[in-house]
Write a structure and sequence with these properties.
By secondary structure, the protein is mostly helical. It folds into two domains: about 30 residues, no CATH class; about 130 residues. It is about 65% helix and about 10% strand. The strands form two sheets. The protein has a two-stranded antiparallel sheet with strand order 1-2. It has a two-stranded antiparallel sheet with strand order 3-4. α1 packs antiparallel against α4 and α4 packs antiparallel against α5.
Length: about 170
């Protein structure tokens, strides 16, 4: 019986295929390199965190919309809060609140709706921030212990929670 192993051409000649990028050739055989394992785990940790940030950025845009529109809504919330704090004076309705007044909706109701929407958006953004930062901490903690499967699982759970938040925002 003849057994032929797959061999690859390297500068020094033929040798078996490299089992993984974490292996180095010691002159006779492939050896697992602790330094390369650590470097690869660090790269994967960074990739998991960067991916999490990217998904969170997309979720933030989905929740808050265009940055200029978000700024407009933030200003409307500030105006509505000032209007509420002043006791809803009928002759001093801010323009951003008056713009929301429609048939069947008073200035007071408009201000309250603006404030409710702003509070819900703020809560969703805080939830998103908490999910993202907690997951990155967990990913790094697991990776520092060499527990990459748990690091990947923490990233996957956070990504799922972020997707669920954007699919079902409390807005």
């Amino acid at each position: 019986m003849i057994i032929i192993h797959e061999l690859h051409q390297f500068e020094e000649g033929l040798r078996p295929a490299q089992p993984s990028t974490a292996h180095v050739w010691d002159g006779e055989k492939w050896e697992l390199s602790d330094d390369r394992v650590a470097a690869l785990q660090q790269e994967e940790t960074e990739r998991l965190c960067v991916n999490l940030d990217a998904v969170a950025d997309s979720a933030r845009t989905a929740l808050a919309g265009d940055p200029l529109k978000a700024l407009e809504y933030a200003q409307a919330a500030i105006d509505a809060q000032a209007y509420q704090d002043a006791g809803y004076p009928k002759k001093e309705v801010p323009l951003s609140v008056a713009a929301w007044v429609a048939k069947g909706r008073s200035a007071k109701q408009s201000a309250e709706q603006i404030l409710d929407k702003a509070a819900q958006l703020s809560e969703n953004l805080l939830t998103l921030r908490t999910l993202r930062l907690k997951a990155k901490t967990q990913i790094r903690a697991y990776a520092s212990k060499g527990q990459m499967d748990q690091a990947r699982a923490a990233a996957d759970e956070a990504l799922q929670a972020i997707r669920q938040l954007t699919a079902n925002p409390a807005l």
